[in-house]
Amino acid sequence: MVSTRYRRKDLKLARCHIVKAAHRIADQETMIRTLELKGSPAGPAYALLDRLYDNQRRKLDRLKLIEAMLCESIVFPGLRPPSHPPAKARTHLRLVSPPDHLL
How far apart are CA 30 and CA 89, in angstroms? Predict the structure, then answer.
């Protein structure tokens, strides 16, 4: 199996795909209700709905995999020592007394 490194943008994209799949399912369910009210045969519409459900299930499985991989990669970087900013970037606090007219 190929090792894949997932990033946060992959998680965001997977969530967008889940939302789109849910919208497609809702649209197809509405179409089936409309066909049943008209008395038209809805066999092919149910077949498409089954495929949409399978597609959504696969996308949910992929989303869970990406979430698990990201959680795993977030836990392990904490084991590294904290990095310090470069020496030039350090700032020093200077104590400045207020002017006499403000006292």
Answer: 60
- What are 21's two structure tokens? 């799949």
Per-residue pLDDT of 16-27, as tens digits, reads 999 999 999 999
**Closest by CA position to 49, among listed 38, 33, 61, 37:** 33
State both tokens at 96.
Answer: 């400045």
- Quick: pLDDT tens for 36-74: 999 999 999 999 999 999 999 999 999 999 999 888 876
The residue to which tokens 């700032």 are assigned: 91
Q: Are 21 and 49 in contact (CB under 8 A)?
A: no
- Alpha helices (runs of H) in the chain, residue ranges in sequence order: 8-38, 43-75
Domain ranges of the chain: 8-80
